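Render this sequence as a predicted structure.
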Amino acid sequence: MKKMLKYLFILLFSFFAIAQNDIKLYDLQCEMLTNPLGIDVVEPRLSWKYFTDKTKLEQTAYQVLVASSAEKLASNQGDLWDSGKVESNTSVNIQYKGKALDSKDEAYWKVKVWTNKGASNWSEIAHWNMGILTYAEWKSTRWIGYNQLFPGDSVGQFSKLSARYIRKQIDLKKNIKNATVYIMGMGLYEFYVNGEKIGNQVLAPVPTDYTKNVKYNVFDVTSSLKQGANVLGTILGNGRFFAMRQEYKPYKIKSFGFPKMALQLVVEYEDGTKETIKTDQTWKFSPNGPIRANNEYDGETYDARKELPNWNKVNFDDSDWMHLMWVQEPGGFYEAQMTPNMKVMGEVKPLSIKATNRGTYILDMGQNMVGWLQIKVKGDSGDKVILKFAESLKEDGSLYIANLRDAKTTDTYILKGDGEEIWEPKFVYHGFRFVEVSGLKSKPSLDQFLGKVVYDDMSTTGTFECSNETMNQIFKNAYWGIRGNYKGMPIDCPQRNERQPWLGDRTTGAYGESFLFDNQTLYAKWLDDIKYSQTLDGGIPDVAPAFWRYYGDGVTWQGAYLKVADMLYQQFGDAKVIKDHYPYMKKWILYMENNYLKHDLMTKDKYGDWCVPPESLEIIRSKDPSRLTDGEVLSSAFYYHLLQIMKKFAVISEANQSDIAHYDALANRVKKAFNAKYFNRETFSYANNTVTANVLPLAFNMVPDNLQNKVFQNMVHEVEVVKNGHVSTGVVGIQFLMRTLTDFGRGDLAYKLASNKTYPSWGYMVENGATTIWELWNGNTADPEMNSQNHVMLLGDLMIWYYENMAGIKSSEVHPGFKQIIMKPDFNAGLSYVNASYESIHGTIKSHWEQNKNKFNWNITVPANTSALVYLPTTSASKVKINKNRLDKISEHYKTEDNKLVLELKSGTYSIQIN
């Protein structure tokens, strides 16, 4: 048996450990964090993955040790927790059950596992430490700021505020053992120690409603400090704290005041003593640095002539800087940030640059992206280089900016005139493909510009490729659209004066996104945002955090609260998130019942089936009643669906049995009333027979017994004949259309919708040059008032359909989190091959199938400690070879179901052939 140990850090907190029997444990994690510092969960969950060449590996038991020091853990002393040998095949979300942990405590842990292939050695040591757990520990740390405008600043429709440069020189008199910073910088901050920026994050921290909760970040700064004089420095930007439209439309737009900061630096010396440096009135600042304005909607202005060399280093003369003042705290409770910050996640080189007849240049990035532009320029002191961002061009080659509304989307760089100058902004981002560059004295070259792609620091988990190039490009467009709209919360669009976290955009979209990105912590954080925005009587807003005061009391939008929680359970096996949020979900579901349920139907709806393809290509919203679905139909069907989810959540949460009985009885009443009012037994249709009106009761199992196929055939006629094989649904209907068509046997029709190139379709967007997903099906022709070219809401369930129905990568509802994988592609939909992968919480799942008239090949990878139910397109086991062996010769463990052979495969890599 091999006994070898090896470190390999993944992200910031995971590693490999090679153990006995060639069993590797990897991605050892605590609370799925990328940063193990500053956890404020007192019972964190521990997870590990396997990587091994051994097939059919199943965990039978584990033992976790947690110690207060690495030395104790190395000698197998679990003084904080020794789980003992636990008979279990669970390897994710193991809840810590040891001694109570206090603020700033350190915890070191490792795991040993037993499997049907043998036992492992102890894994290498992993580590986390606790954050500041109580408000009292922050109480003596004062918030500092300066609630005043300075020359050049303004408040109003186009609020403008220069960045505040803050510094504090400190003297550390002893040798330093370790040092940790806890920082809350509102709205955005960059933190420096002795001139060095700490961390690679940008636009930190993640946004919240600061009157409800405020996130703090934690950094180990031991290596940045030294004995003697040191300088702590911060640049405070505005972010959503000093709002993009500060004090403009205060009835709608929430603002929080001037930027402010609270910080603790805890230093432990080698002699065992500790010292804490905190923000107070001795810290100094200047509003006269180079960042003259930074506004998420309007852009950043940087005057290089006003740079402050060495402002964040020792011996800088700050005699003319002002002292900061103690200011009012934001009001929200202080929480450790348990989701990663944003980061520069990629770069895009421009494709072309063309001169205009206006003396400017148009830069084409070749891809609608989100982030900013780095520039390299030369010129005289005072020269201005102006960058104006847009998603598309007019016919005359100039920027199309009408769809940006009043967002100025302009960065300005004022040169200092000192050779080549390289600059990029700090506190803004833009959604753009094209940039108009003005102020240059000579034609620039492409290598003077570089696009920086910015979104939350999360891994890409999914790949997909198939035999249809249109579908491949749609996937790429979805990938770019999703990543661009992750900004510490899921926003609707990144370019105009909106950029809001609308609930309705992610009701089902979050589920599809989870196949492409590891978005677990992002959406767990977002559920907290929704919870914090709930009114005392139970209402939930349309946008959360509620930066806009929109409380429409709908169902199809607000239902995202439940649907996203269900996604986290289904995709990541996270039952805790359901237990934590169940009381608030129950409060909302009862609030809607008590206020809007009339005659057992849900009467409240605000947005309808938003963005159905309109009757005219120039308009945004259809006025044709035959295209529109009654709001009561939408809200009643959706409310019924959510009641079914609440029954499931009540079981998971071990709620009172009366809850389950109430949801069940109420659902039955709603279903009965819905069918009585809206189901036409003569035409087998609902309401006015829109596709949405029919697909919802089909998807939610509301159709009377034995009539489902007739309703489905009626809906197929609407899609296939009346709409000529094109989409006719809006945001609500599109969430269930692709899967419902496939589940009822018409995957071929779903494939036609997915591969169409004519209007309205996703392929139509591709054919018209889209590199992301549009807000409207007619986004190239509609009124510019609402035609963002980077939205994701119209994806609906398309990405789910790609993975679950085409690739055959689906998590079992019985064993969620891909503990059991359902591999049941629709091989007859129209594709000749699919090659997809997904990095699940248990490991990599792969599905690569190809077929022609005479042969079928399917290569499958099933992660260790999981299994897969595999559905083969044959009923003859003798025609099936698995790893070159005939199925009927090597196994009897298969069955026939719906003209398919069904077999269970344990972990491993398999090559399946059917002749």
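Summary. Residues 1-21 have pLDDT under 50 and may be disordered. Residues 813-914 form a domain with the Maltose phosphorylase, domain 3 fold (CATH 2.60.420.10).
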